[in-house]
Amino acid sequence: MASSNAEYGSDSAAELWRLIGPVTELSNKPCRLIYSELGYDSDVCLFHTKGEFRAMDARCAHSGGPLCEGDIEEADGVLRVTCPWHDYDFNVRTGASETGLQQRVHEVKVEDGSVFVKHQGQLSLKPFPVTSED
To answer: pTM surpassing 0.90?
Structure first.
């Protein structure tokens, strides 16, 4: 399997399709934190529910809480993730919250048994090394 830092396609310079990993590995958890080379605020939650992958920013739009640690529940046919810090909930498909907040969502595609997320930075299943700037 190719590195999780692989890029695919020649979309805009700002966002490219980033290889995350194989469907077989990523489909065994309902939510997984994907690290961004751009730092903590650019990390992504990758959701796998009902055979579909969805992705959104990992830090809650309200106060930066860890959405990947939140509850994922379906109510009235809408799948929502609830932030564990202040109970703000977000539609996993659209990023909309009943509170009026909007969480940024990212396009996801499955191709040849691999999951890709469209994102402005490199993405990885493991944290990127911390580099110091002197």
So the answer is: no
- The answer to whether 66 touches 59, Cβ cutoff 8 Å, is yes
Q: Which domain holds residue 69?
A: 16-124
10 in a structural domain: no
Q: How many residues does the chain have?
A: 134
How many whole angstroms separate alpha carbon 56 and alpha carbon 44? 6
What's the CATH number where 55 sits?
A: 2.102.10.10
Distance between CA atoms of residues 125 and 92, nearest Å: 20
User: Tens digit of pLDDT for each residue in 44-76?
Assistant: 999 999 899 999 999 999 999 999 999 999 988
Tokens of 134: 């002197």
Count up the domains in the chain and report the number.
Answer: 1
